[in-house]
Write a structure and sequence with these properties.
Blueprint: E1 29-31, E2 41-45, H1 47-53, H2 62-66, E3 78-86, E4 89-95, E5 99-106, E6 112-118, E7 133-134, H3 135-151, E8 157-169, E9 173-183, H4 189-197, H5 204-215, H6 225-247, E10 249-250, E11 272-273, H7 297-311, H8 313-316, H9 320-349, H10 359-373, H11 377-383, H12 405-420, H13 427-434, H14 445-456, H15 461-470
Antiparallel strand pairs: 1-3, 2-8, 3-4, 5-6, 6-9, 7-9, 8-9, 10-11
Helix pairs in contact: 3-14, 3-15, 4-7, 6-7, 6-9, 7-9, 10-12, 14-15
Bound molecules: adenosine monophosphate and magnesium ion.
Length: 500
């Protein structure tokens, strides 16, 4: 501490507070104090994020505040009310059942962020549940948020992970944990749905105005700000899902209450990065109908967008027809944004400098081949950079897993021809570019599971190792090679469900 990089850092109690969200009326949230946890143990603290937030990591009060055992000075924590479409069905009242906003601070760079504790006890929205989160799911959320951030995918962040021996009953008896997560806003689609469907339309504008003022300040003075804002929200949502698709990420519970108004990946539950690629892979074992399978995610994002847009009709015009027209225009932006963004990202993964006619079919042919072969998604794309334009050597690392070699070899021939058609073709430069968009390391389920099992035995070294590894997902890390491997057979089908 005390070196150039840590100068100016402050203990939590001295960070500049800016309670804009808590300042909204009590229609949106309820004050709740966290319930203390016995014997808190700091499993991991994200020093890098702490420094970004201006936090002095030597502060002795950190663990007490981040476990919910001591209040954040001068801030009254709140839990938000919301509703949502869960697996397609309307649920009129939900809310932060185990999350609490414990502070809103200004970072040294001027950005305002909110800090939430997840798992810090019951709230008025707990609906008969215990308000707790188990260590297992907390480790998954903690690691995945930071892994996504390092991949360049918009997400809530994680600052700290505290464990406790406090027992929590799920399918088996487990123990409690609290994650402190950080985002510029935790407002969800479901918050607007709550007020719209109760007919409390007067509550929509103050919440929208808050989000716009805090997170879309360039729109504040525009007379058409609601329409422009929604356009951006819908575009961000489409772009987010294009990123999920192209990295092989399945969210698992794409309910509207888990959709961020900022287009962040939010509420990590039974998510999964695909090992073996299956177009209709369903990562959530509680999703019996496969509603949120990999290939459904783009359409679900669109459907959720339509749910959000419906709630905004009263804000857009007093004339119902006019409001409907505005919403329809915005809605249509989803599919055009998604297609464009996804195509560009797939093309980047193939090392193509620009998208040309025929590229969409080149990509879908490859995906079909990988799907039929159940090839490892991450490794296959990473190894594609080995295809050379100056030789016909086979694409090692990909070809070994392919079922239909004839189709694959024909595809590689076409791919090579496509690469050669670009100017300044340089295999080494292209491989370097591809390795910046095709990660070597992702949070595979079996890796998270190993960290969970160690931490359950009070050994937190694997959590720390994964945090370090996944901070640099695109870099070769030679002594970490085993973390890039596909799971061993016995760990291929770990069952991850909604229980958390
Ligand atoms: P999720 O599926 O995790 O997004 O949760 C759906 C809703 O149930 C949210 O409103 C959560 O806050 C709430 N919830 C989930 N687990 C618990 C729990 N253990 N205690 C209280 N509320 C919970
Ligand atoms: Mg949720």
């Amino acid at each position: 501490m005390g070196n150039f990089f840590t100068r100016g850092l402050k203990p939590l109690a001295e960070l500049p507070l800016d309670p804009c969200y808590a300042g909204l009326s009590d229609a949106y949230h309820t004050p709740v104090t966290p319930t203390p946890l016995p014997q808190p143990r700091l499993v991991h603290f994200n020093e890098r994020l702490a420094v970004e937030l201006g936090i002095d990591t030597g502060d002795q009060a950190l663990i007490d505040i981040l476990s919910g055992n001591r209040p954040w000075p001068a801030y009254a924590p709140v839990a938000s009310v919301y509703a949502g479409h869960q697996f397609g069905a309307w649920v009129s009242q939900l809310g932060d059942g185990r999350a609490l906003t414990i502070a809103e601070i200004r970072k040294p760079d001027g950005e305002r962020v909110e800090l939430q504790l997840k798992g810090a006890g019951k709230t008025p929205y707990s609906r008969g549940s215990d308000g707790r989160a188990v260590l297992r799911s907390s480790i998954r959320e903690y690691l995945c948020s930071e892994a996504m951030h390092a991949l360049g995918i918009p997400t809530t962040r994680s600052l700290s992970l505290v464990a406790s021996p406090h027992p929590v009953q799920r399918e088996t008896l487990e123990t409690a944990a609290v994650v402190c997560r950080v985002a510029p806003s935790f407002v969800r689609f479901g918050q607007f749905e709550f007020f719209y469907h109760r007919g409390q339309h007067a509550q929509l504008a103050p919440l929208a105005d808050h989000v716009i003022a805090q997170n879309f300040p360039h729109l504040v003075d525009r007379p058409d700000r609601y329409a422009r804002w929604l356009e951006e929200v819908i575009e961000r949502t489409a772009c987010l899902i294009a990123q999920w698709q192209t990295v092989g990420f399945c969210h698992g519970v794409m309910n509207t209450d888990n959709f961020s108004i900022l287009g962040l990946t939010l509420d990590y539950g039974p998510f999964g990065f695909m090992d073996a690629f299956r177009q209709h892979h369903v990562c959530n074992h509680s999703d019996y109908e496969g509603r949120y399978g990999y290939d459904s995610q783009p359409l679900i994002g669109q459907w959720n967008s339509s749910r959000l847009l419906q709630t905004m009709l009263p804000l857009l015009s007093d004339n119902q027809e006019e409001a409907a027209d505005i919403v329809t225009d915005i809605y249509e932006r989803y599919s055009s944004t998604y297609s464009q963004e996804a195509l560009r990202r797939w093309a980047d993964k193939l090392g193509l400098r620009e998208v040309r006619e025929g590229d969409a079919s080149l990509i879908s042919r490859l995906l079909t081949i990988l799907h039929q072969s159940k090839s490892d998604f991450t490794r296959s794309f990473r190894h594609l950079s080995r295809v050379r334009t100056d030789s016909d050597a086979p694409a090692t690392g990909v070809r070994e897993e392919i079922a239909d070699l004839q189709a694959f070899d024909a595809w590689v021939t076409d791919y090579r021809a496509r690469l050669r058609s670009e100017q300044n073709t340089d295999d080494a430069a292209r491989a370097a570019r591809m390795n910046q968009v095709n990660p070597k390391y992702v949070l595979r389920n079996h890796l998270a599971q190993a960290a969970i099992e160690s931490a359950m035995n009070d050994d937190d070294t694997e959590v720390a190792a994964l945090m370090r590894l996944l901070n640099r997902p695109y870099d070769e890390q030679p002594d970490m090679e085993r973390y890039a491997a596909a799971p061993p057979d016995e760990l291929r089908h770990l069952e991850i469900g909604c229980s958390s």
